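Encode chain A's predicted structure.
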Amino acid sequence: MASTDFAENRRRMVDRDIAGRGITDGGVLAAMGKVPREAFVPDGLLEYAYDDSPLPIGGGQTISQPYIVAMMMQLAGVKAGDRVLEIGTGSGYSAAVLAELGCKVFTMDRHAALVRSAAMRLRRLGYKGIGLKSGDGTLGWPEESPFDAVIVTAGGPGIPDTLSRQLKPGGRLVIPVGEQERFQRLMVRQRTGEDSFDDEDLGSVAFVPLIGTHGWKTKETGAVGIVDLIRQAAEPLPDLDDPRFGEMFDRIADKRVVLLGESSHGTSEFYRARGKITERLISRHGFTIVAVEADWPDAAHVDRFIRHRPPGSPDEPAFSCFPTWMWRNVEVEGFIDWLRRHNGTIPDRQDRVGFYGLDLYNLRSSIAAVLEYLDRIDPETAGMARERYGCLSPWQRDPTSYGEAALEAGFKACEKAVVGVLQDLLKKRLAYLNQDEAEWLDVQQNARLIAAAEEYYRTLYYGSTSSWNLRDRHMFETLQSILAARGPRSKAVVWAHNSHIGDASATEMGRYGELNIGQLCREAFGEDVALVGFGTDRGTVAAASGWDGPVEVKQVRPSIDGSYERLCAEAGIPEFLLDLTLDRDGALITGLKRQRLERAIGVIYRPENERQSHYFHANLPDQFDHWVWFAETTAVTPLAGAERRDQAETWPSGL
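Encoded structure for chain A:
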């Protein structure tokens, strides 16, 4: 990127992210408008240099968020001529800003390598007269005291008295303080006399831990200790195309249900990894069910194809609704081809692997599937079902508007009608079973989906928690129905987002009363279930900018400080498996159990609101049994508009 671009981005950062958020100190604004932040970030992160977010610089440390840098300087009241002690040199960026302000700067860091690189960087940029030192920041720099201001860019358990007493009378100390290493309160202490100080609490912040004599101890498993423990426990993964990749997951082959997650709906490595794991579980360990976060009627087209059954007569192509790329992509295509080839080696159709959808969005196709079945099998019941489903006709193409209509005065909701169809089907269960058991399961689940979808779209207008819970309960109950239909020895693999398959009770979702299929599976199957989460630090992802928007290949920002993803990135191993079931009382699991941020990207990705839109608090070891890590990932390749040259007549249209 050209320097002129950096200059414009710097101006925009100062206007929008600093002055625009309430920083009024003219000296601070002017200094931040001069310092080239791009010179203080790693080369691979240059495009994010002027984002209002912290960025990794190595060693478990970060260059602070620009707004935080400005706010701390404004709170410290620094001005030209002040002697300022900074604890946490990092990249040297804050020291450069202080120097631009005209301060006499003393900066120290416990990481000698960071101090050396910062010194070279500052000299290269022409900043002279800055004192740099490596050592225990909690002890301060007594030989250069007293200071007009002390700014601490790491969070400690309390305000060190050693730093307080290095202030001049009237001097101010700004420091994050808290009982948890990464969740603190920002404190401002002013020295009012020889032994008197005034403290002001300015609210919640999250900084890296302040390690030292009067800070956190590394033996207490601070962040750097956890990174080391992750590095020791991580099992490096072979290449995805290496047969040994699937073998790494033989440890979960004895489970009845294995849930495989993803931290985004548009990441190639997640789909490919789940494919390889599932292929291994099917070919070597007797799994016969693949259940995915997709609608039942769409998945049914694929099921017919892979089980070599006659194609259905879909009302519309499979997976044609937003987001099409979630299932219509090259990665899924390769897995479906493998399933068809595998099933081709199994003579008995009943023993072949099935592909099932757990979700409830495709109301229109489910209605069409039920009516098509009844028209063939039971025309009389078909007529009654068609009349009852007529209640939903105005909303089949846009079911989200049904909930709004259901709240209008005098409108009679369709609940009784759709439940009536399901009841009629269940009354004739034995007769329908005699026709075709597989077809009966299909029509029964479509009828259940319609009833659940009617309630789901109706409850959307009452609150997100009730609708979320209804949806995940439906997915869980559908999984139970599939397991029951396939027999007591059946074993299932589930593909869904981490937010569905990780135990919700171990996340902030649980605090808000939300549950999910992972939690319900643990409650139902106990030790007979495995929850496998997936994560990444950076790369590209296929996602939209808004609901029903076109697919875009977006850059995934490096994970933020305070997140599980950051810890994994700092471990420095490109791909690994972390077995969270081992040594539950050991230092790693104990350290990881502290609530941290975790990233979740759905079909929409808004990197400009990364923290607010895509992070939530979680307890990783209680949320998952295993954690699969890919440091850098790539977007899936959508199949939209593509046709297979070797397309079989029965290939499910839409893939």
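The CA atoms of residues 261 and 498 lie 5 Å apart.
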